[in-house]
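The records we work with from here on pair a chain with its fold. Here is one such record, which you should read through line by line:
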Amino acid sequence: MLELLHVTRQFGGLTALNDVSLNVPAGRVVGLIGPNGAGKTTLINQISGLDHPTSGGINFAGQPIQGAPPHVIARMGIARTYQNIRLFGQMSALQNLLIGQHMQGRGSLLGAIFFSAAYRAEEKRLHLRARELLDRFGLGYAADSPAASLPYGDQRRLELARAIATQPRLLLLDEPTAGMNPSETHALGEHVLALRAEGLTVLVIEHDMPFIHQVCDEIYVLNFGQIIAHGAPDEIKHNPLVIEAYLGHEDSDDGAA
């Protein structure tokens, strides 16, 4: 589904990503972990079109997408969430999901002006889909509430619901459980597993290791812009390179003054 081939991203003299290659198979949940500053969000930005590689290739469903603008990549079927919540805070939860469906709308300008029967039917369909998503993520109560007024965990779920509203084939999640308590985190994991069961492909960045082990089929580990490990969750958990990347290397104490 998604393939990165020797992707490098340099900012002046800083190399944020260095020869990164990874593969996200269709219908799988793949984790991307690593210490702060490892380059994880930079990598997501290359895929979603917010930034572009200095060199290397990115293929989605067999087509190259490196260098394509975000709206083109979104129309191809890639959606994302953000490390920092980016909802339309003064709009209602329902309106946020209607905006998320704008690419599915088929109404014409003339139909909107004259409020035609076809336009009314289209609006009804989009509203119904938005309410179904709100109910699915436990947000039906908040349909008419401003997004900014919702509890933090509900805002996180609303952002996920908005991404799903675009009907993606690939979902990019950038630290989706940040700020959530363990119960909320586990519940979000169940949503991700349900999406996988429906055939959605997911690439998730996350620091919460129980969440990663709950949802991921395989994991890549990024450190200082390079992939240092790849494997099943249990393999990664015991990989000495991964342990060192997270905990650091303790120099031996030989008693020297």
User: Anything to note?
Assistant: The longest helix spans residues 117-136. Confidence is low (pLDDT under 50) at residues 250-257. Strands lie at 2-11, 14-24, 29-33, 55-60, 63-64, 78-80, 170-174, 201-205, 218-223, 226-231. The CA atoms of residues 65 and 173 lie 19 Å apart.
